[in-house]
């Protein structure tokens, strides 16, 4: 209780001179399972918590508050590959709903009032996941923590405050910032490519990549268990992002709330994102200082399963011919998956609506020239065996994989810029991978850089359109 020194207590009278202050502490705990949701709640009711005590795992309570709806979904998705029929405790704890057990490898942070006599968290609140701390580290250090719970804010000797972390592993010269975890985990099991190799790739090309990420919100697509397990989308940085990571608050009309997006402005933040399991990077089309004005126009040539890559190349070449006739500079890159991305520099001079409308006009011209193999129909069921000329990528919040981004596909392909003369019939998506992207960059340089430079004159383009129609 805090009070003004000169004030006196008045029974039943609420006053700003007497303020109740709750003393909360935080600690790391291991997720051992979750309970079924009740009522309108989705995904799970609460997380079952565990801590190590003298090297042995024990029950530490459960936490059911502190979650947003998107967090519930993300955590539930993350835990699905870890579901097991084996309970991690020697004695089954009492839960208010039927439990689902998971392998005890995921670490989270909780806020709590105190530790009960039974060693449980009292009034715990979920704060976030700890990607930089492993359950094995907690096991090793458990013998030095009172009650088996490591609480940074407790009055314990300084060497026991918080989780004692290993020195940051040096990968490509990065020492500060994130602590790399589970670097030996296989993200591509067939190819035997590890998480550490993915981090190493991104840091090796960071000088080329960062200009396309700086000052842009990032829509995170995380694959913490590699490409063979389901990934999940993560937009809201919330309280989980470190203090040194830049963020931007953007209002979401769908939720009626502001979403805190991560902005990747430096090598340390890039490393942090990859350590989270972001195999691919998806920046917004606009910079944060110009929220309504994209820097480029994007055409995503998106084939159906029945189209071959030669047809995609043909569509790209016809698109180039149409844009050349209008004196529009164009730059292409492989998507890293099955398609090709074509970019036009806009220089943040026009609104999303203006850019999208121009993209539609251009794709209508292309579709007329290739009616048998292309379509403007977005619905997968209705478009049939045709390449979708996706002009709707030019909307605020829509993203495509960044240039030089790895894709969560077999072979670890990379989205690579091409000179137009390289767009030949025997081109393959797998020509550019995590293994050869850096050497190509060192040899050819950044072919995509003009996309970030001077934009087109839309008035001139519209004048040219009237001449050819």
How would you characterize this protein structure?
- This is DNA ligase (ATP).
- It is an enzyme of class 6 (ligase).
- The protein has 469 residues and is of the alpha+beta class.
- It folds into 3 domains: 25-160, Nucleic acid-binding proteins (OB fold (Dihydrolipoamide Acetyltransferase, E2P)), CATH 2.40.50.140; 186-280, no CATH class; 296-468, DNA primase, PRIM domain, CATH 3.90.920.
- 21% of the residues lie in helices and 23% in strands.
- It has 10 helices and 24 strands.
- It has helices at 69-79, 135-141, 195-204, 206-209, 267-275, 309-325, 352-369, 380-383, 437-444, 458-468; strands spanning 2-3, 18-19, 25-35, 47-53, 56-63, 83-84, 99-112, 114-115, 121-122, 125-129, 186-188, 193-194, 217-218, 220-222, 232-234, 246-252, 257-263, 278-280, 296-302, 331-334, 340-345, 374-375, 387-390, 417-418.
- Strands 3, 4, 5, 6, 7 and 10 form a 6-stranded antiparallel β-sheet that branches. A 6-stranded mixed β-sheet has the order 22-23-19-21-20-24.
- Strand 20 (331-334) and strand 21 form a beta hairpin.
- Helix 6 (309-325) crosses helix 7 (352-369).
- Mean pLDDT is 85; it is low at 1-6, 14-23 and 143-176.
């Amino acid at each position: 209780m805090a009070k003004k020194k000169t004030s006196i207590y008045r029974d039943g009278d609420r006053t700003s001179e007497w303020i109740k202050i709750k003393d909360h502490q935080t600690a790391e705990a291991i997720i051992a399972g979750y309970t079924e949701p009740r009522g309108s709640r989705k995904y799970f009711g609460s997380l079952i918590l565990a801590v190590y005590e003298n090297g042995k795992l024990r029950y530490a309570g459960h936490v059911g508050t502190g979650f947003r709806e998107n967090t519930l979904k993300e955590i539930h998705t993350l835990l699905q590959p870890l579901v097991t029929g084996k309970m991690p405790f020697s004695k089954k704890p009492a839960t208010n709903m039927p439990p689902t057990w998971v392998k005890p490898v995921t670490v989270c942070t909780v806020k709590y009032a105190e530790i009960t006599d039974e060693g449980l968290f009292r009034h715990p609140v979920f704060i976030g996941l700890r990607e930089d701390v492993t359950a094995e580290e907690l096991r090793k250090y458990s013998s030095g923590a009172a009650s088996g719970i490591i609480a940074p804010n407790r009055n314990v000797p300084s060497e026991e405050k918080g989780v004692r972390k290993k020195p940051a592993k040096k990968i490509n010269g990065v020492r500060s910032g994130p602590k790399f975890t589970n670097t030996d985990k296989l993200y591509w099991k067939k190819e035997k490519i590890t998480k550490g190799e993915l981090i190493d790739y991104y840091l090796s090309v960071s000088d080329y990549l960062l200009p396309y990420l700086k000052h842009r919100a990032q829509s995170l697509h995380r694959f913490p268990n590699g490409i063979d397990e389901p990934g999940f989308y993560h937009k809201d940085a919330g309280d989980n992002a470190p203090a040194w990571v830049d963020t931007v608050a953007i209002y979401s009309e769908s939720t009626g709330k502001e979403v805190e997006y991560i902005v990747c402005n430096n090598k340390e933040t890039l490393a942090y994102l990859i350590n989270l399991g972001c195999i691919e990077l998806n920046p917004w089309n606009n910079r944060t200082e110009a929220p309504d004005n994209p820097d480029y126009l994007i055409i995503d040539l998106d084939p159906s399963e029945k189209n071959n890559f030669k047809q995609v190349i043909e569509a790209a070449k016809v698109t180039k011919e149409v844009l050349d006739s209008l004196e529009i500079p164009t730059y292409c890159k492989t998507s890293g998956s099955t398609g090709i991305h074509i970019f036009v520099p806009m220089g943040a001079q026009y609104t999303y609506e203006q850019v999208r409308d121009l993209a539609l006009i251009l794709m209508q011209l292309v579709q007329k020239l290739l009616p048998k193999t292309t379509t403007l129909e977005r619905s997968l069921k209705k478009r049939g065996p045709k390449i979708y000329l996706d002009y709707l990528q030019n909307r605020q919040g829509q993203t495509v994989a960044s240039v030089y981004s790895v894709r969560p596909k077999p072979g670890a392909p990379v989205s690579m810029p091409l000179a137009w003369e390289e767009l030949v019939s025997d081109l393959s998506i797998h020509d550019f991978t995590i293994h050869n992207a850096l050497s190509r960059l060192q040899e050819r340089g950044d072919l995509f850089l003009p996309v970030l430079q001077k934009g087109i004159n839309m008035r001139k383009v519209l004048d040219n359109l009237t001449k050819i129609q």
